[in-house]
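Dear all,

This email documents one entry for the complex benchmark we are building for the journal club exercise. For each entry we list the sequence lines for every component of the assembly. Then comes the predicted three-dimensional structure of the complex as a token string, followed by one or two observations. Please use this as the template for your own entries, and keep the labels exactly as they appear.
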Amino acid sequence: MNRHLISAADLSLDDAVAILDTAEELARLAQRPIPKLPTLRGRTVVNLFYEDSTRTRISFEAAAKRLSADVINFSAKGSSVAKGESLKDTALTLQAMGADAVVIRHGASGAPYRLAGWVRGSVINAGDGTHEHPTQALLDAFTMRRRLGRLAGLRVTIVGDILHSRVARSNVWLLRTLGARVTLVAPPTLLPVAVGGWPCSVSYDFSTVLPDSDVVMMLRVQRERMSDAYFPSVREYSRRYGLDGDRMALLADHAIVMHPGPMNRGVEIAAEVADSPRSTIVEQVTNGVSVRMAVLYLLLGGSREPGDAPPAAAGLAAAGSGVAGSGVAGSGETL
Amino acid sequence: MIAGGHTQDRGRWLIRDARPLGGPPADILIDGTTIAAVVPSGEGGADLATGGGQLSVLDAGGLIALPGLVDLHTHLREPGREDAETVASGTAAAALGGYTAVHAMANTEPAADTAGVVEQVWRLGRQAGHCDVRPVGAVTAGLGGSQLAELGAMADSAAGVRVFSDDGRCVADATLMRRALEYVKAFDGVIAQHAQEPRLTSGAQVNEGEVSARLGLTGWPAVAEEAIVARDCLLAAHVGSAVHVCHVSTAGTVEIIRWAKSKGWQVTAEVTPHHLLLTDDLAAGYDPVFKVNPPLRTAADVAALRAGLADGTIDCVATDHAPHPAEAKETEWSQAAFGMTGLETALRVVHEAMVNTGLLDWSAVADRMSVRPAAIGRIGALATGLGDLRHGCPVAPGSSATLVLYDPEPITPVDPAGHASRSRNTPFAGMKLPGQVVATFLRGRPTVLGGRLAR
């Protein structure tokens, strides 16, 4: 495993499977009365959020705290960032404070790469511009595997604003690694012109791909794209690329519907679909904590020598039992 | 390397065993501001030097002698951004790169859109003395793109402006571009266009293609350059004027210019050293030292640019030397400034990209980096009324003694810390490149000797 998690494309199949297996063990742990491990006690995890994203920040915060890490939330609002401090100076400050990991959400693509050049700790990308959001893709894969029992050969259809979606990019690279078959569906204006080089297929016709989909992942469409002439109107977008009850009926019985949130009900997804049993939207949130725990555990808790194999999930299970048995080391802290 | 007298001022110089344009070795005698004699080595060149006053002798065994290089596209940043570069530091960098004339772009603060500002830049260049500074005048007032600047006043000023450009911004309005092209015919001017259709490049960061798609950076499509170049070639033809295309970066633009030249239209073009050597995949690490406008393109574009420069479709190499302070680059990609320094590496990059590939010989390098850019800047060998202020002249008796001696042998990594430019944003840092500028002469006076500034 690399020291950082910035792009899903950097994960080998072994890395990805190790994260998913570890997350599975940690999810089981969450069922216990005191779902907390001492693994990262004394380690500091900084949540460095330059964009508002309450759900992602809380998910990382919960994950770090369940591993007993100290968590510092650094929001761009009300901080020195508002006074015009550069990312580099912020990074040097965090470095001086001894951050073991920095979870960064930033509006500029590639900002985590820059950060990784300026801090010694691990950098975890919690979404950078229109580039990537690797833990979202990992939690999506985790959710698919839980619901459908496998990833290899799974037919996954991702629908919406691919051009601007960090979720779509991370999913395309990760699902390729994990052996799933991805189809992107979008109006041609919302696909990169060079999408032909991506390891997936592309369709402009949503309805025709639905019967052959095991997973349909709907992406949020931003209303401001309309003013940039990416599509004529929200209504037309919704008619051609939204998932309503009629389209959902085209799906096979086992197929699931995913959405990374936040949803625009009535635009890309109808309420009856979002609230149907096929929907995994709430599970995705739950799974996000387990997956982010696994990422923190493997980046910070295991061997710190680069190039070492990640600890096997079985080993983690043993460690987890030991912790639970040793009684609640962290029980004084609230979760 | 220097024997004899230590006089570094104008006087008499005997350069022994230099290879003019890479050809057979010759002795070059400089007397005052002009070349007095060029004699094949061993045929008595030294005898020419007998008599007269004090003589400095430079043993140039094996060095290539080229006419002093001329840059059509230099950002000297003064006035306004003296933290990035000054006329003095930028022209020192130019001399060290083998340049004897640079065209200082107009996007200063304030913009060079009046006779006063261009004369200031011109005067600062004279004071620094490292090379000739030819100010470029803005096409539109304040580079605003809406109203013509006083082009005639700048042309008539002491700076004698002939090249006009809003570089950094495109003159996007077709009517305004037409008028500018027409207007400068009155004083043999040329409009140098930064070809970038603004609506197609809103927020653009990198070449639109596989790399932009993967990195999630807003794409800068080739068509945004090509559409403007095509339009401007047609406009120049329609009004019978001269357009110069700045920093050609795409294969499609090369095709359009080739077609326009085949019609006999007055279209010229330049390519930067970085577009001849680097490709867009360097953005993968999001290090903004590789962020430039127009952006680095694909390997296919690089091949087409090299071929276009080799066959003369692209007239010349121009650096687009764009210094920036460290903080403008030590930031997120999308927030970083566009631009790269280039004066001190240009000849070495051209050596690597064009000579070592067999596409150009040294005679052609002299043509693309001195003769043709001087002609486009209206300071070439055929320019009238300039006397020995002309550049790009043959290395021959009677020419202005404005030349560069270049050692093609060493291969060394580029070290930005050693650069004379105030800025360090070179994309070639650490890259092993051939060659070394050993000496630069401006009208008989050495500006660089032994690879160092001579004053």
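Observations: Chain A has two domains: 8-132+284-326, 134-281. The longest helix of chain A spans residues 281-301.
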